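Complex 410.
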Amino acid sequence: MSTFRAPKGTNDVLPPDSGWWRHAYRVFEDVAEQFGYGLALTPLFEDTEVFARGVGGDTEVVEKQMYSFLDKGGRSITLRPEATASVVRAAIQAGGVQGRLKASYWGPMFRYERPQKGRYRQFYQGGVEYLGSGSPEADVEVIEFGYRYLERMRVPHVDVHINTIGDAADRARHRTELIKYFLERFDELSPDSQRRVETNPMRVLDSKADTDVIADAPKPSDFLSDEPAEHFDAVRAGIEALSIPYTLDSTLVRGLDYYNRSVWEYIPRTYDAAQSSVGGGGRYDGLFEILGGKPTPAVGLAMGVDRIFLASEAAPPRSLLDTFVVVADDKKRTEARTLVSELRREGLRVDMTDTVRSVKAQFKEADRSASATAIVVGDEWSSGLVAVKDLKTGEQQEIPIKEIGRWLRA
Ligand code: AMP
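Predicted structure with adenosine monophosphate bound:
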């Protein structure tokens, strides 16, 4: 019989290793609440046009990496390669944004990439979108969000690489000069870049195959008009005031078409250079209109959880359980089950075996589930006591049954 394997470029994460992932998710939710972000739940798939238009037709993501298929109704559907276009689509569908809307999301994204370490076909992102604000303070807040999340996930030495790519008019002037420049050096470019020179020269700047040509190419900063330049100065002043370390990176443009003004990436200095960014974001003031909504300024980021996992020094939570109930007297199984139920309702993390087992086998299971303690239900039960064993030190003591919950929480 053949055995099944997870599809190429995807990963299974099972207990106990998934402890880190649960921790990463909880910390993300916690930081999102601290920063005042509500939760956005959108479909994992959308009408293909949402991404084709939202992300941009000439991008790597749309041209090569989309998981698209026709559903049984003949509609072209795409598994989301990113969530910003979905969140914006949802906000427009809900009637647009009045004032500000701050929303966060967490979940799998799908891109048909060449799998390698830190680059998968299904990967996980936690992201936030700050909709309805054109203020540089919003950029600063979102940049800080990602930085604080990485701090909490113990990713060391994070440097924020930032750049501004200006507004539509600046980009148009940059584009004209880029085309001129790339045509001069056309023969040195890779076939993919040659094809993009006239359709989307900004994307040539993302090409890993053409770094020599790109190094001398005109930079977005050479074409900045006053307002975007002032906006960028304010963003820099804001992150300096928060003592967030950053580097100006005039070559950074980011792979999705919808960005304008600020773009940034989080780069841990100690991390493998090939897959160096553990998250990134930018302003996307034009995206609402591209997707058929009213003009609405917005800024957001996405953190790449798989890469944070590779770069994080956070140990997975030590114990999954506060206690494991060991039944030393088989006649007391029902009492033990009731105790487990009561302790769980008190908010403690508790487990026991599914059926009669030797005491030795039960202790083995307690160890395997990384429980901090074991409670032994045995002879002392009739005197209103249980034995509690600290599974780390091996120390054991008798505690009144009524006090066990309080004792475990202490
Ligand atoms: P992007 O949505 O392309 O701006 O990417 C944001 C973050 O998601 C990146 O900084 C990466 O950490 C992560 N990421 C993007 N693509 C992948 C992938 N194929 N596999 C794993 N992580 C990814």
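Residues 82, 111, 113, 118-120, 123, 125, 255, 277-280, 302, 304, 306-307 surround adenosine monophosphate (CB under 6 Å).
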